[in-house]
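Subject: design request, 242 residues
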């Protein structure tokens, strides 16, 4: 992740810089996020945390920024059953404990900074934490809250839309999940290749190999220049001949 964008203290004072870095992080994820290990918006939050935690923490005059900083710190904290040498910041003995800390910190942002940009981001982090804990309905509610509060062109909307599709899949509703991936492709065309790859995966898992094969066979043509083309071809090969 050496090429992940970082922000200086000066940049943190400029809202436009925040949006630019968030967008760059989202673009980085488009080409690098492992399709078999999707963690929805949590990955985006961790990437952004690398550049944002320090800046937010040092902006002590901004209460909302300090509250959101606690969310990012919890989300990016280490998990270890033994004390870590030179540990700076929080750490947790289990991932479940870490996710509960994220939910608690996000709740404080939502309670004290309702309607703010920071509250919207806290909702996204809260959704990811609930998702990791297997709390599907709570995760969906948090993702919906983020989508309702965030700007339509917010660079992290893809995280919430992915999250909703993954929640539906986890709940056993393949049709709803497929609709969720279709929504992602419609609302954020830049992620349509990812959406189609996930739709094909879900179709294959649902016993609809023919439909999955059709989607993957036309992937390269439908998404020219996509960095996911090789992955689509590999998955098509695994499905075998009709």
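Subject: RE: design request

Done. Sequence follows.
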């Amino acid at each position: 992740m050496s090429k992940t964008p970082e922000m200086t203290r000066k940049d943190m004072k400029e809202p436009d810089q925040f949006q630019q870095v968030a967008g760059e992080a989202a673009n980085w994820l488009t080409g690098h996020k492992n399709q078999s290990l999707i963690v929805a918006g949590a990955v985006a939050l961790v990437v952004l945390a690398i550049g944002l935690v320090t800046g937010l923490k040092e902006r002590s005059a901004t209460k909302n920024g300090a509250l959101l900083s606690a969310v990012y710190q919890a989300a990016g904290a280490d998990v270890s059953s033994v004390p870590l040498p030179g540990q700076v910041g929080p750490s947790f003995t289990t991932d479940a404990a870490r996710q509960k800390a994220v939910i608690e910190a996000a709740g404080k942002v939502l309670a004290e900074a309702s309607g703010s940009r920071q509250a919207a981001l806290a909702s996204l982090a809260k959704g990811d934490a609930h998702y990791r804990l297997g709390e599907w309905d709570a995760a969906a509610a948090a993702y919906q809250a983020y989508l309702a509060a965030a700007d339509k062109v917010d660079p992290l909307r893809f995280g919430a839309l992915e999250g909703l599709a993954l929640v539906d899949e986890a709940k056993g509703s393949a049709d709803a999940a497929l609709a969720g991936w279709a929504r992602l492709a419609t609302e954020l065309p830049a992620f349509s290749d990812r959406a189609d790859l996930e739709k094909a995966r879900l179709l294959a898992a649902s016993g609809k190999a023919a439909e999955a094969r059709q989607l993957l066979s036309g992937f390269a043509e439908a998404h020219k220049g996509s960095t996911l083309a090789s992955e689509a071809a590999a998955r098509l090969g695994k499905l075998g001949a009709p």
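The longest helix spans residues 15-32.
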